[in-house]
Amino acid sequence: MDYLIRQALPRDLEDAGRITVEAFVGDGFTNPTSGYVDLLRDAERRSREAELLVAVEAADERVLGCVTFARGGTEWADIATAGEGEIRMLATAAASRGRGVGEALVRASIARSRELGLAGMAFSTRPEMTAAHRVYERVGFQRTPERDWAPYPGMDLMVYTMAF
User: Has residue 1 got a pLDDT over 90?
Assistant: First the structure.
C-alpha cells in the first residue's frame, strides 16, 4: 500500500473538504445547491467535533480520501447508539479510486471503534451508493433494514451494522 491512514492534520482539511464535496456532488448523490454541501466542505468542523480520518499518499501526504468517525450518541452520529461507532461522509478522490482507499478508511474506522471499546458500528448510506455497499459488505457489515430511516421525506437511508 502506497498510502497511509491517519487523523487529519490542519493542512489536510481544505483538501478533505474539497474531496468530500466532489464525491457527493460529482457522483450525483447531493444537489450542488443543497445546504448539505457546506457541511460536506467543512472538514475543519468535522475534525473538531468528531474525528476525521484521512488517507494520504505515502510519498507526499497528498489527501486521497477521508471519512468522519463519530461515537454513537454524539452530534455527528445519526443512527449509532451510545455503544457503537458511526462513519459519515466517506469520500475518495476520483483519481484515487480503485486503490482500496475507501476500504482502508472503513477498516480504520472499525479499528477505531474497537480501540474505544465500542460494541460495534452502525451507519447510514443511500440506496444508490452501490460501490460503497460492496466495500461495507466485503469488510463484514450486514444490512440491517429494521434500522433504516429517513431524515426527511424522500431521503430514504439504509443502515449497515457490525457487532464486535
Answer: no
In a domain, 50, yes or no: yes
**Nearest C-alpha neighbor of 160 from the set 120, 131, 128:** 120
| 106 vs 63: CA distance, rounded Å | 16
Q: Report, in angstroms and rounded to the nearest whole number, the Rg of the chain calculated over CA atoms.
A: 15
Question: For residue 151, what pLDDT band results from cuts at 50, 70 and 90?
Answer: very high
CATH of the domain at 43: 3.40.630.30
| 133 occurs within a structural domain | no
How far apart CA 66 and CA 54 sit, in angstroms, is 4
Q: How far is CA 145 from CA 123, 125, 157, in A?
A: 12, 11, 9
Domain-located, residue 75 = yes
Instruction: Residue 11: give the domain boundaries.
Output: 3-119
Give helix 130-138 / helix 101-115 axis angle, nearest 10°. Answer: 50
Residue 24: inside a domain = yes
CB atoms within 10 A of CB 35: 7
pTM score: 0.96
| Signed CA dihedral, 142, 120, 42, 12: sign only | negative
Q: What is the helix (H) or strand (E) element at residue 22, kind and residue range? A: helix 13-26
The tally of domains found in the chain comes to 1
